Amino acid sequence: MTAPSPFRDRPPAGHGARLTVDLAAIVANWRRLAAQAPQAECGAVVKADAYGCGLARVAPALARAGCRTFFVAHLSEGIAARQRLPEAVLYVLNGLPPGAGEAFRDHALRPVLGDADELAEWAALSEGRLPAALHVDTGMNRLGLSVPEALALAGDPVIGRAGIDLVMSHLVSAEVSADPVNARQAADFVRVRAAFPGLRASLANSSGTCLADATHHDLLRPGYALFGGNPEPGRPNPMRPVVRLDATILQLRHVAPGETCGYNARWRAPGPRRLATLSLGYADGYPRAASGAGHALVGGVPCPILGLISMDLIILDVTDAPDARRGGLATLIGDSLDIDAVGRAAGTIGYEILTGLGSRYVRDYVE
Ligand SMILES: *Cc1c(COP(=O)(O)O)cnc(C)c1O
User: Fold this and answer.
1) How far does residue 209's CA lie from ligand 1's centre (Å)?
2) Does the beta carbon of 206 sit less than 6 angstroms from any atom of ligand 1?
């Protein structure tokens, strides 16, 4: 384990950047969401290596805090999660691949079943002994039985034979609280769950947890907000930031007016400027699409990213940052630069920034 709280430490010389993941903040965010829906259980979605934050560290931290139910996307993620979570209930959102039943059984994983073939295949293996969830599609048209298909299964013995213990659906636009689709899906889901008395029900992702109680049901499935993402875009972010990305400044240089920098000379100095080159690039997961739009913080001063982001390097304009020095740090994520802001600069969402976090950094976990 690494030393706690070296937020301002340089990465060791062999690495270009340091990613700091605040496990205590993840736990605090989980508790905050749980408190928002006190009559429901709060699970945790830890697919995609816990949104890039590292399943091996994140999942046990949440389990120690009292989280009992986890969701991943794939069987392989479920197997990895089971190693870290011997006691937890583990659902696999992408369902049951053909012939994979034994692997689910052997690792005590619960598939989220979304069509008749999956149901039949799992029912034949389970015979009511191995639990699973039923996915009902109330609007995504992505995974799950349609509402009429689900209603037609009410009272069908296959539900018991497949060990269904949870019925779930997924919201289309939960982060847009005023979108009427939320109320429509919430109403459809109430009808669906009423057709399966005795089963638990789950509808809310992170943003759904912040919608009205109508979406809470028995089990919350937050992911993004646990990792510091804002579940209510346009409002102040109530979640604690979780990730911080600091890269080392390799070189400083002065350029004269008219000089360019980087590939294809996309930036031209409008006047005399001081540039800093950072040891981090798109191969580390910092999106190339943020070229010319993103910025980093040096000594708290926002410094624009200049020209095209390279594979391993980023050039900053540090003319206004007196603290910039060789071996010093620039913050790409952290302080006023939260993951939502970085996502916007790259024309994407904070989810993609998190899940794209690279593996070349030194990773520090703060408990
Ligand atoms: C990813 C996912 C979640 C978590 O969503 P967040 O927006 O990250 O909270 C919940 N449910 C399903 C079905 C998902 O695929």
Assistant:
1) 11
2) yes
**CB of residue 221 inside a 6 A radius of ligand 1:** yes
Q: Please name the amino acid found at residue 62.
A: L
CATH number of 243-366: 2.40.37.10
Residue-wise pLDDT tens digits, 107-123: 999 999 999 999 999 99
Domain spans in the chain, listed from the N-terminal domain onward: 23-227, 243-366
175 Cα nearest atom in ligand 1? 7
Question: From ligand 1's centre to the CA of 157, what distance in Å?
Answer: 29
Are 81 and 71 spatial neighbours (Cβ–Cβ below 8 Å)? no
Question: 171 CA to middle of ligand 1, Å?
Answer: 9
- Cβ atoms within 10 Å, residue 249: 23
pTM of the model: 0.95
Assign domain 23-227 to its CATH superfamily.
Alanine racemase (3.20.20.10)
